[in-house]
Amino acid sequence: MKKLKLMALLLAAGLSVSISTSANAEVGFLNYQKVLENYPAAQQAVKEIDAKGLELQQYMLEKEKQYKNLDTPLKKQNFESQTASELKTKQEALYKLRVDKETQIMTQVQNAAKSVMVAQKLDAILADQVIFVGGVDVTDLIIQKLKGQ
Fold this sequence. Notes:
With 149 residues, this protein is mainly α. Helix content is 77%, strand content 7%.
């Protein structure tokens, strides 16, 4: 019986220690948009995606001019189906490029954030939209870390 009371007392003491430890959690937050605006690799990715989008627009203007020069309905129909196929391929390539670049940048930001989290002895880093009051702004530290890579 004494052992049971002793175990219950130790369990309660351990629980109260773990609760008080978690109450002092340090949380950091970052402004992801600011990170993207100040991270050269993200800016370069945006430029690449925009350039590919512009190429797609130029392609469409060129195809529109070619379409107007066709004289028979059969030629127009064949041209439309061929152009639609080519356009779909180009749109898919643009989408894949965008997803790949976003994933790459997100991974780099996450790795930098993890490094800052460990260095600053934080329990977590959240997006600034989630924080209402409190927390530590680590946005500039993450930007510095990314620029240093």
